Amino acid sequence: MLHVAIATRAFRRYSTYRAATLAGIFTNSVFGIIYSYAYLALWDANPTAGGYDAQDAVTYVWLGQALLMTIALWGGGTTDDLAERIRTGDVAIDLYRPVGLVGWYLASDLGRAAYHLLTRGFGPTLIGVLVFHIALPSSVVNAFAFAVSLVLAVVVSFAIRFLVASTAFWLLDQSGVKVMSGAFAIFFSGMMLPLVLFPGWLGTVANVLPWASYVQVPADIWLGKHTGSGLLTALGFQVFWAVVLLATCQGVLRLATRKVVVQGG
Amino acid sequence: MSTDADRHDPTQAGALIEVQDLERTFDVRRRVEGRRRRSREQVVAVHDLTFSVRPGEMVGYIGPNGAGKSTTIKMLTGILVPTGGRVQVAGLDPSRNRVELTRRIGVVFGQRSTLWWDLPLIDSFELLQRMYRIPPARYRENLDRFIEILDLGDQLDTPVRQLSLGQRMRGDITAALLHDPEVLYLDEPTIGLDVVSKGRLREFLRSLNAERNTTLMLTTHDLQDIEALCERVIVIDHGTSVYDGSLAGLHAQGGSTRTLVVDLVDEAPPIDVPGAEVRRVEGPRQWLSFPSDASAAPIVAAVASAYDVADLSIQEPDIEDVIRDLYSRGAQA
Fold it and tell me: Which candidate from A5, A92, A260 shows the least CB-CB separation from B126?
């Protein structure tokens, strides 16, 4: 299986940077502690804000820290390689391989995400459990649903990052778009503040945008906020965005290929 | 099978690469001074290009910068669509059957790598095996052979980014050949390599051609590559072929000359003998040129009988001069 081979190699590749991994876990934990106390103060003032209790809020903080690198919220991951290959023109080589680019980079990014989950994900979660006694999934079903939701979160985030990287076909450089997209992701994923706290129409809009798949949906599944058909709706929401965005990736790639192939460059 | 193959021109039967009246133009927007809008301009990169290559040929494809070499190679590999004319490689239309064609051709770019930068060399090979679905036995056999000849055994576990340029190039060539391509395109394969590495690479390419009948098409600035490998040369300039034939014929075509270097005992006025003319005089040394196809013997005899000669030597024509000559004539035309 080619794509499994691609994923394992991406996993191995990221695992060579051990010191960076440890430094990253440390950073996530420091931020986790800071956010935890800020949220505790907030929930002390309003113990039922957004339908969360204080333990939910702190759990949400640590899940966010654990997901940050796994879903590559800031952008980056293997799609940065793609942007670089577009900039240098090496992408021409990728284009005449008998394999689709989207599947290739997705497999690679899933391998990366697996590595980041095992390190940057489990590390902060463990500290959250030990120091802040965060909530754990209440049932096997919830835990399993969370795992599925996590994979979907990576796929949605990958698709958005792939689209950002593809802008390099036209702009030569993705960095401007990447910064902008990162800002949207931090705000609308619920990373900065849970989307359940967003008021009125802003909350409504934020909850249907693809970024809600990043942190808010997996966290709510972990916390057991979705049950029964609600659970399926939540996962369906992520599947919807994953499919729509991956299809867009294919379309954009076809346009870009046409541009390169027909117009030269 | 593809219907294109059925419509194949019978007179061209047996050709592996066929290019007919190929044309490629680019729209370029250019800023014109004093005007707000940029004007559109058409640049012709390739036009009226026709040639065909038989299986097992080793063809040198040469030309100055901007002559249209890369544009041609891109059209042959299918990553660029021609704006006119026809291309067929192994019976396929490259831009329409790009993916199918990739399984039958190999491409090596001197300045770009097809290997994965962060991975050990062997990992790139293993990914390619899966990508091209190379049967395991065949893969093992090819890999063992290329590793041995190209001396890559010690580098297999080294990440590509840590390889030297020569090692990387050998890795790239292995990568391009694992799936037994019928055609191998090499774009500047020896660029940046030292003399020993260049020699080894040329030796390898020669044996590949001899043993597997792999067709080679080579673009290069290094004319020694051509002299070492190619019996046939296509010279392209301003987007069209200005010469297509044997290397020997290129010398004749260029009206190339051999040079007789004469060291006289004393300085003398320019030597006057029939069949040769003096090109340069430097103290007692004089350079006489005469046509490549003429015999040197009568000229040497004439010089020796009329002058006091200390030493004599003959310089063979330099292919670079021949090509420079072709280019300059093309520019005048």
Answer: A5
